[in-house]
């Protein structure tokens, strides 16, 4: 697996953020192991979001992104499962099925469902965005949308089987994603897929390589919060209107 070069060759920042959510164990063990999940957002929301972190795990900037999304556009119950977040672990073990990441994601969805959620989206940063696309390509997958900021490994080939619309938010370090979005238009999803670029910030600015004490990164980060929250609310509203 080859991740974006900018991610592989740079270390996480020392950014800080006071968490608004809590860690809790998933009630379902996966392959005999207990996994923690970071939970944030209003507990009475019926709209669930699964977040998959980049290779460095639940970094403070990722947590800030999650907390802010969870509070946006009417609120979401957001859950971020936490397999070991180390680059070496991703390289050796970060396979969607072989390492049970698919099962961890589904267990996270069921946790949200048990807490009252009736609609679900999934997103991630870098590798996490790629994982969200794989989850959204599974038969009978539960997600209304997938994608995320500064996505890695996102090509026409990797999205050919997706079963929901995508929101892709590229940094200056990613290729043009417009052809990727164009390639799935024939699927006629109830909400159009969306992509835009942030050419003033680097890969990872919404995750482990981000430091939102920098005004430029913070402004771009808040725009991502708005776009993702708006999109998740939109796909949920469409689904709710059809129930």
UniProtKB/TrEMBL annotation:
Organism encoding this protein: Entomortierella chlamydospora
Protein name, as recorded: Dienelactone hydrolase domain-containing protein
Organism domain of life: Eukaryota
PANTHER family linked: DIENELACTONE HYDROLASE DOMAIN-CONTAINING PROTEIN-RELATED (PTHR47668:SF1), DIENELACTONE HYDROLASE FAMILY PROTEIN (AFU_ORTHOLOGUE AFUA_6G01940) (PTHR47668)
């Amino acid at each position: 697996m080859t991740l974006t070069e900018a991610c592989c060759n740079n270390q996480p920042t020392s950014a800080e953020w006071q968490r608004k959510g809590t860690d809790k164990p998933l009630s379902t063990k996966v392959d005999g192991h207990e996994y923690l999940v970071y939970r944030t957002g209003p507990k009475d929301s019926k709209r669930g979001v699964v977040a998959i972190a980049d290779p460095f795990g639940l970094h403070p900037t990722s947590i800030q992104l999650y907390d802010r999304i969870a509070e946006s556009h009417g609120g979401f119950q957001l859950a971020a499962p936490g397999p070991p977040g180390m680059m070496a672990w991703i390289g050796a073990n970060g396979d969607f099925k072989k390492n049970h990441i698919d099962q961890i994601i589904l267990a996270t969805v069921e946790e949200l469902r048990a807490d009252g959620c009736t609609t679900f989206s999934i997103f991630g940063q870098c590798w996490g965005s790629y994982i969200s696309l794989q989850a959204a390509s599974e038969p009978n997958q539960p997600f209304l949308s997938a994608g995320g900021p500064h996505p890695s490994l996102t090509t026409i080939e990797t999205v050919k089987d997706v079963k929901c619309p995508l929101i892709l938010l590229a940094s200056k370090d990613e290729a043009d994603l417009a052809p990727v979005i164009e390639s799935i238009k024939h699927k006629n999803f109830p909400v159009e897929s969306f992509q835009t670029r942030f050419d003033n910030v680097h890969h990872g600015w919404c995750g482990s390589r981000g430091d939102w004490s920098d005004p430029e990164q913070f402004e771009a980060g808040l725009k991502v919060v708005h776009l993702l929250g708006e999109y998740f609310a939109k796909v949920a509203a469409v689904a709710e209107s059809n129930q």
